[in-house]
Design a protein that fits this description.
Length: 98
């Protein structure tokens, strides 16, 4: 699936379930979440600095090993990032924490 297809079909992490448009916006930048409880969702990283992307993220979720805990996702170090809007990189699951 290419980046344009991902933008058309994906759901953004933290989008409200009753939001009529839970998908990504064409002018924003996203990381695809791969593996773990949030697999397939997009994370809005539009205004993140390179260092923030490199550090990864701990996302609140009710779907992880510990409901109400955090799912840990990190940038793939060997993956190049596509500049601009759309899906620019993937964040790989690295476990759960409280």
């Amino acid at each position: 699936m290419n980046g344009d297809e991902q933008l058309l079909n994906a759901r953004v992490h933290d989008a409200e379930h009753d939001d009529p448009t839970p998908g990504p916006l064409p002018h924003r930048t996203y990381a695809e979440l791969v593996g773990g409880p949030l697999d397939g969702l997009l994370l809005d990283i539009h205004e993140w600095r390179t260092e923030q992307v490199d550090d990864g993220v701990a996302l609140f979720t009710k779907l992880g090993r510990w409901p109400g805990g955090r799912a840990l996702y990190g940038a793939r170090p060997d993956e190049s990032r596509r500049p601009g809007s759309g899906v620019s990189c993937c964040f790989q699951d690295s476990g759960d924490t409280l």
